[in-house]
Amino acid sequence: MNVNVNANKTALLVMDVQEGIVSRIAGSGYLPRLVGAVEAARTAGIPVLHIVVGFRSGHPEVSDRNASFSALPAGAFTPEDPNAAIHPDIAARTDEIVITKKRVSAFAGSDLEMVLRARGITHLVLSGVATSGVVLSTLRQAADLDYRLTVLADGCADSDEEVHRVLTEKVFPRQAEVTTVEEWARKAG
């Protein structure tokens, strides 16, 4: 399949690649690979959508029943938090959309689905941190919403390499094409 054929119906989602999240991922090869995916998408005319987790000051969106987000320190992932910024290596261009979500899935508490529908996007290419968090949750919800899915296995990262491997090799292939950044970029070009 040639990615370019449906470039106008495809979008690359770069999810949770924020300063305070990327810093938890070991290995120096992740960001350069992701930069390659972003550059390939831009060159092919494929929209790049940056998905970030973000809250208002004081975290009024976070329930004390939410184990993950209620454990965040005060001020984390608010407009005042420098760790909430998209990593500068893949920073959004002025013509690229940044979508703020309030939970793990890119769809939860965001206007992602509205943006995708408005642009006629039917194929999502998923990348981001963490494979067991935003990528897994977004993939499941996107599959239920009937999006065609591709996962860039090495464009995703997780602090647990074994969990990453199991998801990309055994779980994700049931609902998505799983490929590498290099292979996808070759097809996109």
Provide a descriptive summary of the structure in words.
- With 189 residues, this protein is an alpha/beta fold.
- The chain has one domain (3-52, 87-188): Rossmann fold (3-Layer(aba) Sandwich).
- 34% of the residues lie in helices and 20% in strands.
- The protein is built from seven helices and six strands, in the order E-H-H-E-H-E-H-E-H-E-H-E-H.
- A six-stranded parallel beta sheet has the order 3-2-1-4-5-6, with helices on both faces.
- Helix 6 (161-171) links the parallel strand 5 and strand 6 (177-179).
- Helix 2 runs parallel beside helix 7.
- It starts with 9 loop residues before the first strand and ends with a helix.
Mean pLDDT: 93
CATH architecture: 3-Layer(aba) Sandwich
Helix/strand order, N-terminal first: EHHEHEHEHEHEH
CATH fold name, please? Rossmann fold
Low-confidence stretches: 1-5
Spatial strand arrangement across the major sheet: 3-2-1-4-5-6
CATH class type: Alpha Beta
Reported for the largest beta sheet, the result is:
6 strands, parallel
Please give the alpha-carbon distance between the first and last residues: 12 Å
CATH homology superfamily name: Isochorismatase-like
Task: Label the structural class.
Answer: alpha/beta
Tags for this entry?
six-stranded parallel beta sheet, Isochorismatase-like_dom, Cysteine hydrolase, disordered N terminus, alpha/beta, Rossmann fold, 20% strand, 7 helices, 189 residues, hydrolase, globular
